[in-house]
Amino acid sequence: MVNLHDWIDELCDLLDVETEADESLLGDLAEVAHDNVHPTAGPVTAFLLGVAAGSRDAGPDAVERMAARVQAFAEAWDRPAGSSSDEDNDDEADNEVAEELTHLDEIDEVDEDVDEEEEENLLV
């Protein structure tokens, strides 16, 4: 069985990534995001840290500083997964989408009325 360090080395080779990945830092960060934000936030957070580090050509010290900022952000997250606010936010978002769709339907109806009036005026 391949251990995590070997997996990361092989994956970096496969992806042609020259930078060493700090599996401890990424694992800790992913765990904090998982526990404080959402179960799938862990891998997404690690991925986005990698994207940010790569786009800045960041060295190990800069990556550690970014990871510390992200970890503090995740630890302070006030909407953890499974909280009742998730359901409230989902309902709120659903209501907002429904209102927007209703508004778009109303605009379409007005446009159709205007089109019919224009057609009638052209026929006269």
From TrEMBL:
Q: Which InterPro entries match?
A: DUF6457
Lineage top rank: taxon: Bacteria
Annotated region (Disordered), positions in chain: 77-124
Q: Which Pfam families match?
A: DUF6457 (PF20058)
Which ranges carry the DUF6457 domain? 3-79
Compositionally biased intervals (Acidic residues): 85-99, 106-124
Name this polypeptide is given? DUF6457 domain-containing protein
Source taxonomy lineage?
Answer: Bacteria, Bacillati, Actinomycetota, Actinomycetes, Propionibacteriales
